[in-house]
Specification:
single chain, about 725 residues, alpha/beta, Rossmann fold, 4 domains, seven-stranded parallel beta sheet, six-stranded parallel beta sheet, globular, transferase
Length: about 725
C-alpha cells in the first residue's frame, strides 16, 4: 500500500531543493473502523502530506482492509502506510490482529531508528506514556490528547507528574480547542506559550454555495459511532414520534461501529437501526460519501448525554454539517455557546428539547436556515486548506534536514535539564537542539525542593552535562549526586539569593553558574562568596521573530501595557498613578494588563498584606469614574505578540527585577519601554528608558521618543544567547 518514491529534481546548477521533512503519524484510532477519531488520524496525515514539504509514514494499528479511509492515504504520493502488524512480527499480535498501545510505541521507536523523523505525531494518552521510556524519540513527538481528564482537579498527584512530564519532554502539544490549551497550561504552568499549538477539527474545503435548506428534502442525518453517551439509541427510538408528524421525512444513520458500553445496547441499537419506520441505516461510508449525504440533508444530529456538557472537545461532525450547509441539533454547553453564540436556535439537552428542536427544524425553513448559516460561518474557519497552510508554517520553522546529521563518530552531548519552572529554558533548548550537538533529558521538579528522587537517580547516569535551571533544591541535590565524569552548570535568576538552597550546595562540584544580569551576579557574589571566574552573565534570550512582525493598531500611542502584575513588588500602583497623570493631559490613555487577575492566584490569597494591597487598588479604580474604564485586564494566553500590537508603551514599574523579559518583548514589538530605576535597569535597558518616578514616566510617554536600538542589544536575541550557551557547554569537551 505504499506510494512510489518521490523524485526530487535539481532546478539547475548547484541549486538543490531542500530535502523533505519526514513525519510519522502514530495514533490510537483504527482506520478499519470509521468514527471521528479515525477520520482525525487520516486527515492529519493528509494535511502534512499536502503541504508538499514532508513525506508521511502512517502507522496502521491493524492490517488495512477497508478502503473508506485508507484509500486516500494509499493514493497520496507523499504518504506511505506502514502495516504495524507486520512490523511487530509477533505471534500474539498476528493473532489479535490489532496492536496494543505498547506495541504501537514499540513500532514507532523501531521506525524512528530506521527513518530519523523530524516530527512524530502521537494521539493517545496510553501511547504517549509508553513513549516516555524512549527519550530520544519522545523529544520529536507532537502530542495530541483528548482522552485525558478535562479538569485539573481530576488528576491525582501521580497523574499530574506524569502529564507534566509529557508536556515538558515532547516537542509540541497540539490542542483541539483553547480549553485544552488552558488545561495544559494549568497542569504544567512552566510550559512556554509557543509549545501549545491549536489544531482544531478539520473538514473538507467548502466548494461553491450549498443548496438552501428550503430546497432540500426533509432528510435528517447522523454520522459516526453508535454509543450510549452519543444518544444514538434515543435518536432512533424517538424517531417514530417525529416521523408521524413529518411522514415525508427520513432519518439516515451512517456508521458501523457499535459499542459494547452498556448491557444490551448493541442488540437494541441494531434492532432500532434495522426496524424503525422512516429510518434508513446506510452502514459505513467513505468521508466523501458522507459529505454527499450531508449536502442533501436538512439537519444533522450531534446530540449528546448531558454528562458530556463540560467537555473541552467538540465533534468534527458539527463542522461537517455546517460545511455542507445544514444545521445541527447539539447540546447547549459553554463550548458550543463560545463557538456559535447563545442564540443558536437548535440547542437541546433533554430528550424533550431534542424532539422539539428537531420538529422545529423540519417544520420551519427560516429557523433551519439560520442554524445552517451560523454553523457555516464556524465551518469556514476549519477547512482542510486552512489547516494545510498552518502545517506548512510549522514545518518551515523546523531546521533543514541537512543541518542535523547523525554521526557514529561524533556522539551528541547529552544534557540533563533539572528544574521546577522551565519556561525560560525551553526556547533555548530548541535552539541548542538545532545545532545537532546536543540531546536533552528533562528532570521536571514539582517545586523548589521537591522531586521524584527515584526518577532523578535513573536519569543521572545518562547525562554528560547537568543543567540546573534556577539554583534551588535542584542544584543542591545534583551537587551532592553528580558523577565524577559529569559537568554541572546552573542558571541563577534572582530569588535564589533569598532562599537557603545554594548555601547547602556542594560548591566544589559546581563547574559554572550563569547569571541573567550583572547586578544579580554582583549581589550573589557578595552573599555566597562565589569565585567570580566560575561565573558569567548570559541574559535571557528573546525570540524577536515572534514579535518583530507585529503591526500596531490605532490607539496604541495612548495604550500603556504591563505583562503580569503579581506580586506586589511589580508595583501596579505606580502604573495607575502614571495613568492618572496622563489622563490629566489626554483622556484617551488606557492601561492594559496581560495576565491573570491578582486575586485569581491561590497562593496570594494566603498572604493578607498582598490581598489588601490589590483590593485597595481595585477599590480605587472602581470608585473613580475616570479610572473605572481605563484599567483593562486581558486574559493570559500565548497571544502576547498580538496583544502587544495594541500597546505603545511597555511598563516595568517594579521595585526589583533580574532582567524583565516583558520589556524586551515589548521593544521587539515596537513599544516604547518605560522602566523604573530598579537596580540594574539602566545597564540592561539603557538610561534613556529609565525613570525615577511617575512624573518622569508621564513625561517619557508624552515625549514618546526613545531610540530602541540602544535598548535592545543583539546579545539579548535568542540566537545570540543560544550561541553563548553552546560555547559554554560544548567548551567542556573541545
Amino acid at each position: 500500500m505504499s506510494s512510489p518514491p518521490i523524485n526530487h529534481k535539481e532546478t539547475g546548477g548547484s541549486c538543490k531543493m531542500p530535502e523533505l521533512k519526514r513525519v510519522l503519524v502514530c495514533a490510537n484510532p483504527d482506520l478499519n473502523y470509521i468514527d471521528g477519531s479515525s477520520i482525525w488520524a487520516q486527515t492529519i496525515a493528509l494535511v502534512f502530506a499536502e503541504t508538499g514539504l514532508a513525506t508521511v509514514d502512517f502507522l496502521a494499528k491493524s492490517t488495512p482492509r477497508r478502503d473508506e479511509l485508507y484509500q486516500p492515504l494509499c493514493k497520496h504520493r507523499n504518504i506511505n502506510v506502514v502495516n504495524g502488524i507486520r512490523e511487530i512480527g509477533s505471534a500474539s499480535s498476528m493473532l489479535a490482529k490489532r496492536l496494543t498501545h505498547s506495541e504501537m510505541a514499540e513500532v514507532a521507536v523501531k521506525l524512528e531508528k530506521k527513518n530519523d523523523y523530524d516530527v512524530i505525531i502521537v494521539r493517545g494518552y496510553a501511547i504517549a506514556k509508553e513513549l516516555l521510556d524512549s527519550p530520544e524519540v519522545f523529544r520529536k513527538c507532537w502530542i495530541y490528547l483528548t482522552d485525558i481528564p478535562q479538569s485539573v482537579e481530576a488528576y491525582s498527584e501521580a497523574e499530574r507528574e506524569e502529564i507534566s512530564e509529557i508536556g515538558q519532554r515532547c516537542a509540541q502539544l497540539l490542542c483541539q480547542t483553547s480549553g485544552f490549551r488552558d488545561l495544559w497550561k494549568a497542569l504544567v504552568p512552566s510550559l512556554p506559550d509557543e509549545k501549545c499549538k491549536l489544531y482544531p477539527p478539520v473538514i473538507p474545503d467548502i466548494a461553491g454555495e450549498p443548496l438552501p435548506v428550503a430546497s432540500r428534502q426533509k432528510q435528517v442525518v447522523y454520522a459516526g459511532k453508535f454509543k450510549p453517551d452519543w444518544m444514538t439509541l434515543e435518536m432512533a427510538e424517538t424517531w417514530p414520534e417525529l416521523y408521524s408528524n413529518h411522514p415525508d421525512a427520513e432519518l439516515r444513520m451512517i456508521g458501523d461501529k457499535i459499542h459494547f458500553d452498556s448491557e444490551g445496547f448493541q442488540h437494541r441499537m441494531k434492532i432500532a437501526l434495522e426496524h424503525t419506520p422512516g429510518l434508513k441505516w446506510l452502514g459505513a461510508m467513505s468521508r466523501e460519501g458522507v459529505q454527499a449525504e450531508l449536502h442533501q440533508a436538512r439537519v444533522g444530529l450531534s446530540w449528546r448525554d448531558e454528562a458530556m456538557n463540560e467537555t473541552l472537545e467538540y465533534s468534527t461532525k458539527i463542522l461537517e454539517y455546517g460545511g455542507a450547509g445544514c444545521g445541527a441539533i447539539l447540546n447547549r454547553n459553554p463550548l458550543h455557546e463560545e463557538l456559535l453564540g447563545e442564540d443558536y436556535p437548535l440547542f437541546a439537552n433533554t430528550q424533550e428539547q431534542y424532539i422539539n428542536a428537531l420538529d422545529a427544524a423540519l417544520a420551519d425553513d427560516e429557523l433551519a436556515q439560520i442554524a445552517a448559516d451560523q454553523l457555516m460561518a464556524v465551518a469556514k474557519l476549519h477547512t482542510f486548506g486552512t489547516r494545510v497552510g498552518e502545517a506548512s508554517e510549522w514545518l518551515r520553522l523546523l531546521p533543514d534536514r541537512g543541518k542535523i546529521t547523525r554521526s557514529e563518530e561524533t556522539r551528541k552531548i547529552r544534557v540533563l535539564v533539572a528544574g521546577h519552572d522551565l519556561k525560560f529554558f525551553t526556547p533555548l533548548q530548541k535552539r541548542l537542539e538545532e545545532t545537532g550537538k546536543f540531546e536533552f533529558l528533562v528532570d521536571q521538579w514539582t517545586g523548589h525542593n521537591s522531586h521524584d528522587e527515584k526518577k532523578s537517580l535513573e536519569l543521572l547516569p545518562q547525562a554528560d552535562v547537568i543543567f540546573c535551571e534556577w539554583c534551588l533544591g535542584n542544584l543542591k541535590w545534583y551537587s551532592h549526586h553528580r558523577l565524577p565524569h559529569q559537568r554541572l552548570v546552573a542558571r541563577f535568576h534572582a530569588q535564589e539569593a533569598k532562599l537557603p538552597y545554594m548555601a547547602d550546595a556542594k560548591w566544589d562540584a559546581i563547574d559554572h553558574i550563569a547569571f541573567v544580569s550583572e547586578h544579580t551576579r554582583k549581589n550573589a557574589l557578595g552573599v555566597f562568596g562565589l569565585e567570580e571566574n566560575l561565573t558569567s552573565v548570559i541574559p535571557n534570550g528573546i525570540d524577536i521573530e515572534r514579535f518583530c512582525r507585529v503591526k500596531k493598531h490605532g490607539g496604541a500611542e495612548f495604550t500603556l501595557g504591563m505583562i503580569g502584575v503579581v506580586p506586589r513588588s511589580k508595583r501596579l500602583d505606580r502604573a495607575i498613578d502614571t495613568l492618572e497623570k496622563l489622563l490629566d493631559e489626554d483622556e484617551r490613555y488606557v492601561l492594559r494588563i496581560k495576565g491573570k487577575h491578582p486575586l485569581d492566584y491561590g497562593w496570594l490569597l494566603s498572604r493578607p498584606d498582598e490581598v489588601q494591597y490589590y483590593k485597595d487598588l481595585m477599590n480605587r479604580v472602581n470608585s473613580d469614574p475616570r479610572l473605572r474604564f481605563k484599567v483593562i485586564f486581558d486574559p493570559p494566553g500565548d497571544d502576547v505578540p498580538q496583544w502587544l500590537s495594541m500597546v505603545g508603551y511597555v511598563f516595568s514599574p517594579s521595585d526589583h527585577e533580574s532582567f524583565h523579559m516583558a520589556v524586551g518583548e515589548g521593544i521587539a514589538a515596537g513599544a516604547t519601554p518605560v522602566v523604573w530605576n530598579w537596580e540594574g535597569a539602566a545597564d540592561i535597558w539603557g538610561e534613556p528608558s529609565v525613570v525615577r518616578d511617575c512624573s518622569e514616566a508621564r513625561d517619557l510617554v508624552i515625549k514618546g521618543e526613545v531610540d530602541h536600538s540602544l535598548k535592545f542589544p543583539s546579545s539579548y536575541i535568542l540566537e545570540s544567547v543560544a550561541e553563548r550557551w553552546e560555547e559554554l557547554v560544548f567548551g567542556f569537551y573541545s
